[in-house]
Design a protein that fits this description.
Elements: H1 9-21, H2 26-33, H3 37-49, H4 51-54, H5 66-87
Helix pairs in contact: 1-3, 1-5
């Protein structure tokens, strides 16, 4: 029986930041970080679902037009990508 690997939150955040940059394909990230593609997709979905809480606004709970929700998410992603590129 193979033991399950446990990943630190720092490692997950690094993988998600790279995935959000969209400079590499999921396949390239899989090879680079040695994780399953489904794991990267799951971590990315989890991060995106929690973006609103970072800014103190739960846009999913309010009646906001879908285009506005998309705009909020896009802005949040852009700010995360920018912050990670500045920190690098």
């Amino acid at each position: 029986m193979v033991a399950r690997r446990k990943f630190s939150s720092e490692f997950k955040a690094r993988v998600v930041r790279e995935a959000l940059k969209e400079q590499e394909t999921t396949s390239e990230l899989v090879r680079r970080f040695e994780v399953a593609p489904s794991q990267i997709i799951q971590w990315k979905k989890e991060a995106l679902s929690q973006l609103e809480s970072l800014f103190g606004v739960n846009i999913l709970a309010k009646k906001v037009p879908p285009k506005m929700k998309l705009l909020f998410k896009s802005l949040a992603i852009a700010s995360l990508v920018f912050a990670s590129s500045v920190a690098s």
